[in-house]
Amino acid sequence: MDITRRDGLGxxxxxxxxxxxxxxxxxxxxxxxxxxxxxxxxxxxxxxRLGSCFAWSEPGADRGSFANPAYARLLKxxxxxxxPENEMKWQALRPSATxxxxxxxxxxxxxxxxNALPVRGHNLLWHQPKWMPKWEESHDFGATPTRAAEQLLVxxxxxxxxxxxxxxxxxDVVNEAVTPADGTLYTTALSRALGSPEATLDLAFHTAxxxxxxxQLVYNDYMSWEPGNAQHxxxxxxxxxxxxxxxxxxxxxxxxxxxxxQGTDTRAAIAAxxxxxxxxxxxxxxxxxxxxxxxxxxxxxxxxxxxxxxDQGVADFTxxxxxLMFAYPALKDVxxxxxxxxxxxxxxxxxxxxxxxxxxxxxxxxxxxxxxxxAIAAAFTAAAPRG
Length: 387
Hints:
With about 375 residues, the protein is of the alpha/beta class. Helix content is about 45%, strand content about 15%. It has helices at about 10-25, 40-45, 70-80, 90-95, 105-115, 135, 145-165, 190-195, 195-210, 230-245, 265-285, 305-325, 345-350, 370-380, and strands spanning about 50-55, 80-85, 120, 170-175, 215-220, 250-255, 260, 290-300, 330-335. Strands 1, 2, 3, 4, 5, 6, 7, 8 and 9 form a nine-stranded parallel β-sheet that branches. Helix 3 links the parallel strand 1 and strand 2 (about 80-85). The longest helix has 21 residues, at about 265-285. The radius of gyration is 20 Å and the shape is globular. The chain starts with 8 loop residues before the first helix and ends in a 5-residue tail after the last helix. The relative contact order is 0.12.
C-alpha cells in the first residue's frame, strides 16, 4: 500500500472538461435498484450500499484505478459508493507542514462525480507514527507545542473537509489508534505535543464535526474476529466508551474486516468465532454507534492451493461473516478493499507460503466474478431491509 508522489495535475483539468456534461446528467440518475444482478442493486433493494476502494493512476495504467477502463467498469457495475485507497491520507496530501497537494484526489473526485458515485473520506488522521508523514514525527512544534499542534491538526481537517463540502458525507476521522497487542493508544509527535492521544483524537472529531456537520464521523480500526484480537477489541471498546463519556461526536465504528480464513471447515470456524464477536458488536451498538464495514477482503489462509476449493472456502467464510453482520440494522454500508485479486494489497503484504497467488476479492485477476461475488450477492438477498 505504498503511496508515491503524484504527477497528474494535467489529468484533473482534462477530466473536469470532459466530464462536465456527463456530471450534470449523471447526478440526475439514481444508482440502480432493480434486478440487474449488480451487487449495488441487491444492496440498494435492502436500503444498503456496496462499494470499494479505488486508486489514482495515469490513464490506462495496470492499477486498481478509475483511469484503468477494465477496473472502472467493475466500479460502475457493482458499486454505489467509493473510498480512496491511499490518496486522502496525510502521506498523500501533506508533502510538508505548510503545504497540501490535492491533485490526485481531486481527479478521483471528479471521476466519481461524473459517474454519480458518492465517495467516503479515508482518512483524516491515521494515528500511528509509521503512517504519519516523516516530517510530522520530526516536526518542531516550537515554544508553545500544544497550540502549534492544535493548529496543525485543525488546519488539516478543516482544509480537507471544506474543500469537498457535502460531496463527502462520511469520514474515517481517525484510523487505527489502538495498539493491537495491549489495547492502549498509539502516541505520535502530534499527540505528545497535544498532551495525550485522547486529546488528539477528541480534537480530530470535534474539528470534523465543525468542518463537516453534515457528515457521518467514523472511528475505523482492525479489531478482527480471529483468535488473538481480544486485547485489540477491548481497547477499541474502551476508546468508544471514552468518546461517549467525554461527549466526542463519533457516529459509527468502522469495522475493517480484513478476514482470515481458519481452515476448510467453515461452519466450525464461524461457530468458534461468532460468540465473542457478537458480544463485541452488541457492546458497540448498545452504546448507540452505527456500524460500517469499511475494508472487506479475505486472506485464504489454511485453505488448499487448489483454486476451486480455495475460492469456495473464501466464499463460504465471507457469507458466514456477512450473514452475522447483516443481522445488525445499524450496518448499512459495506466497502470492499478492492474489486479484483489483480490489485489487492494482500499479495505484497502476506504472500502464501506455497507461492499460490492470493484470491481475496470478488473478481479474479482476469476480472472474472468468483464464488465470493455470489456469496456477497446471496448475503444481500437474504438480509432484512433497513429503514
